[in-house]
Each structure stands twice: as structure tokens, then as C-alpha cells.
Amino acid sequence: MISLRGLALAGVLVTAAIPALAHHGWSWTEEGMFKLTGKITKIYIGNPHATLDVDAEGQIWRVELAPPSRTIAAGFTEDVAKPGDEVIAIGNRSIDHNEKRMKAVRITVNGKNYDVYPDRVPPA
User: Fold this and answer.
1) Residues 6+ apart with CB under 8 A from 34
2) Is 102 in contact with 36 (CB distance < 8 Å)?
3) What is the pLDDT of residues 107-119, one digit of tens each?
4) What is the b/e burial string over 93-117, where b = at least 16 CB atoms within 10 angstroms of the residue's CB?
């Protein structure tokens, strides 16, 4: 028999998990590929995902990369780019166009490609 207290606890746990599920994966992105070009303003290599803040025509975009281990395995570290470098990010834009946010599958910095999700990079 499930008590009301147990049922309430289960409800709290499910509610707490929804934002985490929404954050991970691709459910928050559009299906088609999106390309963003701009200048890096900030680089973060850490959990849960590496990110770049990118100034694209005066608007700051958040470009999410892969988790840190996968991003570093792709060759992208804080040592290969710096604020002010131009970046081209290819990936999927947020469904919510009010937020300037995308999840990149490839970034190009200083002429070098970093495929953080190589299985999702569109064919050339």
C-alpha cells in the first residue's frame, strides 16, 4: 500500500527531474541545422556541457557543446580559442526563438573544425 507521504515524495521527485530531462538531449532544439557566425566572448569547459557565449551582430548567443569529456576528446579546449576569436557553429537552434541559444554539433575556430557530435554533423 502506498501512503500519501510516499505518493507526495514521488511527485516531488518526478517534478524535480523534468527540468533535468528538458536540459539534456535535443528535445529543446529544432530539427533542421542552423549556422551561427560571431565572436567568442566567453568559453566554459565544464559540467554539464561546455559552452561558448558568442556575439553575433550585437546579440549574445549561448552555444552549447557536448559534455566536457566529449568536447575535449574532439580537441576543443580553452587553449585552442580565446575571447575575440571568430567562431562558426553548426547545430540546432532552440525551438524558443526568444532565447538566443543553440546546441552545436561542430564549431570552427581559427580554421579548424571541432566535431563535438560527429555522428550528427551534416555531410559536406
Assistant:
1) 90, 91, 92, 93, 102
2) yes
3) 999 999 999 999 9
4) bbeeeeebbbbbbbbbbeeeebbbb
Output the nine-digit C-alpha cell for 33: 541545422
Q: Over the stretch 3-54, which tens digit does the pLDDT of each residue have?
A: 555 544 444 444 444 444 445 689 999 999 999 999 999 999 999 999 999 9
Per-residue pLDDT tens digits for 47-100 = 999 999 999 999 999 999 999 999 999 999 999 999 999 999 999 999 999 999
Residues 73 and 89: their CA atoms lie apart, in Å, by: 18
Half-sphere exposure in the Cβ direction for 95 (13 Å, CA):
8
- In whole angstroms, give the CA distance from residue 16 to residue 19: 7
